Amino acid sequence: MREEAGIVTRTTGPDEGRAVGVTTSGPAKNRPTPETSPPAVSRARRRSVFHPFVWSPAVVVLLVLAVAWSAVADAHPYLLPRLGEVGAALTGDPALFLTNAWATLGIALVGVGVGAGSAFLLALLMSEIPVVRRAVMPFAVVLNVTPVVAITPALVVAFGFGMTPKVVVTAIITFFPVLINVATGLRSVPVPVLHVFRTLHASRWEVLLRLRIPNSLPYTLAALRVVLPLSLVGAVVAEFVAAGSSGGLGTMIRNSASTARLDHVYAGVACLAAMGVLLLALVTLAERRLLFWHESRRSTRA
Amino acid sequence: MTAGIEVRGLTKRHPGARPDRPALQDIDLEIPHRRFVSLIGPSGCGKSTLLRILAGLEGHDTGSVSLLGESPRRASRRKAIGLVSQTPALLPWLTVRANVALPGKVNRRSGKEVDPPDELLRAVGLEDAADQYPHQLSGGMLQRVAVARAFALRPDVLLMDEPFSALDEFTREALQYQLLGLWQRRATTVVFVTHSVREAVVLSDEIVVMSARPGRVHEVLDVDLPRPRDKDIVKGPHMHDLEDRVRASLQRAWKAGAAPDDLVPL
After folding, report:
1. What angle do CA A19, A20, A23 make, to 5 degrees?
2. Are A293 and B77 an interchain contact pair (Cβ–Cβ within 8 Å)?
């Protein structure tokens, strides 16, 4: 997870120079220029993504993995498809993968929208009305420790083979991390700032809008960083169980596995991985735009 | 002269603390309007608690508190109280200008006009930093923004809780003079909590020396240095006499209070 995040940060690196230039135009003048102060650590950090120093270790690992894969695939063609076959499957029928990926992504995103959205609203209610917190929290915890996958067959019985059970599973999986993070973010407001608001006789609504919600933004985005890739897990698992006619990568992978089309299976997995990286990249982008003021972003820039 | 702040027989007990040692006991204090008063005393004497009660952030058990004849809550309802704490307490996602403008944005029902932020930033010498964000400024600059934000309301009462204690000596002195300049022009009643004898003498008209356990007003000392105060006055011999008097009073206050439980008695 962490490495993945790191790679995403670097691949979107070229933007970084621009973003930094915009947000810190002020103190840039008293920051030492790279030419005059080249301490080893900061120089390594400032290197471009295209510098071999940055990308070569990952490429070496990639090559080692590819060689190992090929060795296994050559020895046991019924366990692993050759990389070339996977690539051929992807390029041979891109429309198949794109439509299925689109279906899965749609379920994942709608699920996140429903799950994270309702969690955010509930967190707001919990922070404003303590009774709601005491009433809801135990059930949220139970919901979190329950392996939601186990409910999926029951949901399919209840909602049929359409989109609904899949969205519900994804929403349940993404609900809890968002609830906990946002609730923490809404509560962890610095006391001196709260005192300033109170001496101004700010209303609860004003405290919520001007202080608590902006303060919870880093927590919310941290939750999304966890929850967006998780939503793909929810969507795929739901598709495994409710393999209806509506398609999706999960359905495709299951059907391909039952017909021993391993190249399609792994091509589907590759698509899922790419989608996960894409979602993480989106969160990273949002963090860079919205959290320029937060410690988490400053420390990477210093 | 109207009473700016009037405290009568105020007692405050922290819940769960020893009942015979209230945080504040029988505090009587009368601060005329537009005076600069410092609260000084050993740690645990309740000076910050008293400030929070004045700000309406904490309640009290017995006695009465009034700011310009009304309760702290009513005073805050019409945005008459400015507060500066030890930390700048700015909103990191807003620019400096938006932070200074914040008091005007909340509680609009009070109908109180606030000064334009740029004017205040000019007064604290930060007009160039108006579009920057708090994380781009130094500690001293941040505290100046906090002071500007508090003055933006034209508060009747300005409450400051060790606002400069986290700053280095030079920054601190510069900010003291800046504060005096602002106060001179926008005369308000200031209650300033500090640990520093020198700071108290340089800034104040009156110094309230408090003793701890229980928190009580030990002595109120007048500071008869002329105003406006410049560096010559502050360096003069009378200044040192005053400092010595405050120190002696603090010594007596320290002995008057029961020894803190976490210290070995001298």
Report:
1. 85
2. no
**Binary contact (A192, B87; C-beta < 8 A):** yes
ipTM of the complex, rounded to two decimals? 0.91
Distance from CA of B172 to the nearest CA of A (A): 20
SS3 B104: helix
**Chain A, chain B: beta-carbon pairs less than 8 Å apart:** 75
Do A179 and A119 contact (CB within 8 A), yes or no? yes
Q: Give DSSP secondary structure letters for A266-285.
A: HHHHHHHHHHHHHHHHHHHH
What six digits make up the tokens of B241?
A: 């006499």
User: Is A19 inside a domain boundary?
Assistant: no
| B57–chain A Cβ distance below 8 A for any pair | yes
Chain-chain contact of B102 with A210 (C-beta, under 8 angstroms): yes
Distance of CA A93 to the CA centre of its chain: 27
Cβ–Cβ contact A37 with B under 8 A:
no
**Any chain B CB within 8 A of the CB of A198?**
yes
> Where in the sequence is the domain holding B120, given as residue range(s)?
36-55+79-194+211-218
Q: Do B149 and B91 meet the contact criterion of CB atoms below 8 Å apart? A: no
What CATH number did the domain enclosing A150 receive?
1.10.3720.10
pLDDT in tens, A213-246: 999 999 999 999 999 999 999 899 888 887 665 6
Q: What is the pLDDT of residues A171-192, one digit of tens each?
A: 999 999 999 999 999 999 999 9
Does residue A259 form part of some domain? yes
SS3 B192: strand
Q: What are phi and psi of A221, to 5 degrees?
A: -70, -35
